[in-house]
Amino acid sequence: MIEAVKFDRLYVEITNTCNLSCTFCTPHWRDNRVMSVEDFQRILNQLSPFGDHLYFHVKGEPTLHPELKTFLDLAHQAHKKVHLVTNGTLISKLTFDLGAHPALASLVISLHSLQPLPTSAQKTILGDLSRFLTVNRQRTLTIYLRLWNENNGVLIQWLSDYLGQPIHYTPSKKRQPLIDNLVLDTDQAFEWPDIEHPKVTDKGTCYGGLKMLAVLADGTLTPCCLDHNGHLALGNLLETPISELLTSPRYADFRNGLEHGQLIEDLCQRCTYHLKHKKRISQG
Ligand code: SF4
Ligand code: SF4
Q1: Using CA positions, which residue lies closest to atom 5 of ligand 2?
Q2: What pTM, to 2 d.p., does this model score?
Q3: Whole-number Cα distances in Å, 266 to 197, 222, 223
Q4: pLDDT tens per residue, range 254-268
Q5: Which of 8, 222, 254, 275 ranks highest by number of CB atoms within 10 Å?
Q6: Ligand 1 pocket, mutate which of 28, 30, 59, 84 (most atoms under 8 A from CB)
């Protein structure tokens, strides 16, 4: 067993399916999969020494998973904290109280995912979300409302009405505390890295593989939470011990490259995401 380096974030894609098809969300090329409870437990056992914060997504909508509560229970038993990013459309349909689950450390609701929906559907979902947010005001769970788009008048109006005060969309001002445990997270949408995009640069660094790891719905381990087609795959956690994957030459070269400002993987050389966070990374 290698010494267990702790990663800040361990992404586990419990499903790669989604009930929406947002324009900014490049579709993946993999088969649709929903992780079984047995596979999740095996993956959790493998990841457990390497970090305490699980993020239940890469692609896909986690609240679609029929065993979401079981996964949260298993994470809680393993003393892990879970962070969820959801489009929010199914929260009211869940058969358990998501906001009260002891494993849940933060919840991000991607409001911008609602923008393409018909007005009537938006109204229904936003009504459900208002009730959910109101209940959550009595709790300690922090909810982040993510708005990564322009032309979001309906969503901003809903939020202003909910809070009883005008809210202004300022994409440069990230993480604007609203009330108690409710935060507005504004930014601009990013482009998913794609092997078919033109090369951008082979210089740079990134948190992928240094501070985070991701497991795709079939058990594939990759250093990058944006590697939605598994181009950086280190192997499969359902077949190979993680200690073997994290001592592989591919991972060692990848890590060493990032530590010296070199993007050695083809996908990374075509990625613009790391440029977006360049300043933050260089500041450590
Ligand atoms: S951004 Fe989220 S909600 Fe939209 S299609 Fe992708 S996974 Fe689904
Ligand atoms: S450079 Fe891009 S593709 Fe490579 S690890 Fe970072 S985010 Fe992922």
Answers
A1: 208
A2: 0.95
A3: 10, 14, 14
A4: 999 999 999 999 999
A5: 222
A6: 59
